[in-house]
Write a sequence for this structure.
């Protein structure tokens, strides 16, 4: 059966805007996040405390985060790769973080300048300290369904990194299809394998990029398997600067349209959400790739 409620983890301001060529002014980012929160998104991933040379688009994290002071920081996760990143986040009052590992060696090198195991070792003190500070910790896994350099990714590799991140103390995991190569059968196989390995489905979220148009179908497969946390980006913004073949995430509006059509609650006001994405698309100077945003904007 399908769940009655799904928690959408909005990643547009982080995963979306990290990949925009244009420099988006900090004030625009802040307004976008406020609009998303006002549309009812329970969680809005705000920014990353990474090296500014690695992701220049998010180099304004120190300026942006204080502009969100009226929102509960437990609704505003931030990406943190290492202890330096955690210190920066803590100094600004962040209460929820995500570390981001890779299932493949190629992407671990490209994204974190580390091997898979070296990155896990880098996260270990970060997760420990964050838990001591009573923060909520998410662990991302990239390239769970395919890798641009290595091709198909063995399920056993995903299982290993999942278990390692849970052992570090992550509260939840997000299974990333960074390049959008996965298909629904693959999703089912992976979730079944994780179940068998003792990874509770309740701790898993899914993070689909829509490169091959499979994101919504993959999400449906995950829902059928009991997953209730789904990542999406408003207006379908997104990609990854260190994986060139990646396009945007599953669009939040397309997801909400499907979920509400299925009678699944999200707490989201689709009209307000669409307005936020259309507003940002106007600012970026190109139409949103979300089919639902386009359809509702033409009404
Ligand atoms: P490195 O070059 O190995 O860094 O990069 P290092 O540890 O050798 O340190 C070098 C210098 O950087 C030092 O300064 C550090 O202080 C500084 P120096 O002593 O030379 O003056 N430094 C920092 N400065 C600010 N903030 C920090 C920080 N850390 C070190 N946090 C590093 C390693 C992890 C820093 C780098 O590789 C990095 O920043 N990577 C981030 C890449 C990234 O953000 N990618 C996008 C997010 S992942 C994603 O999008 C996938 C996802 O959506 C899921 C999916 O779709 O699959 C989540
Ligand atoms: Mg992503």
């Amino acid at each position: 059966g399908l769940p009655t409620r799904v928690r959408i983890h909005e990643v547009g301001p982080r995963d979306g805007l990290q990949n925009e060529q244009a420099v988006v002014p900090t004030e625009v980012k802040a307004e976008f996040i406020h609009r998303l929160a006002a549309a009812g998104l329970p969680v809005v991933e705000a920014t990353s405390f990474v090296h500014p040379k690695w992701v220049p688009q998010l180099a304004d994290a120190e300026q942006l985060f204080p502009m969100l002071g009226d929102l509960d920081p437990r609704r505003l996760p931030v990406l943190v790769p290492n202890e330096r990143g955690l210190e920066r986040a803590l100094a600004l009052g962040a209460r929820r973080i995500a570390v981001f590992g890779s299932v493949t060696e190629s992407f671990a090198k490209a994204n974190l300048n580390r091997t898979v195991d070296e990155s896990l070792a880098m996260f270990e003190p970060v997760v420990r300290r964050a838990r001591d500070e009573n923060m909520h910790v998410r662990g991302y896994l990239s390239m769970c369904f395919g890798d641009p350099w290595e091709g198909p990714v063995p399920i056993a590799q995903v299982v290993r990194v999942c278990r390692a991140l849970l052992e570090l103390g992550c509260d939840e995991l997000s299974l990333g299809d960074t390049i959008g190569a996965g298909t629904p059968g693959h999703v089912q196989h992976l979730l079944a394998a994780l179940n068998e390995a003792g990874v509770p489905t309740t701790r898993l979220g899914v993070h689909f990029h829509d490169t091959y148009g499979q994101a919504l179908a993959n999400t449906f497969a995950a829902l059928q398997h009991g997953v209730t946390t789904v990542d999406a980006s408003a207006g379908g913004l997104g990609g990854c600067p260190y994986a060139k073949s990646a396009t945007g995430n599953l669009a939040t509006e397309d997801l909400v349209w499907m979920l509400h059509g299925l009678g699944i609650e999200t707490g989201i006001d689709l009209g307000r959400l669409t307005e936020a994405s259309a507003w940002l698309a106007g600012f970026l100077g190109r139409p949103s790739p979300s089919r639902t945003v386009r359809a509702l904007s033409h009404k």
Summary: The beta strands are 7-10, 43-44, 47-48, 78-79, 96-102, 136-142, 172-177, 204-208, 229-232. The longest helix spans residues 116-132.
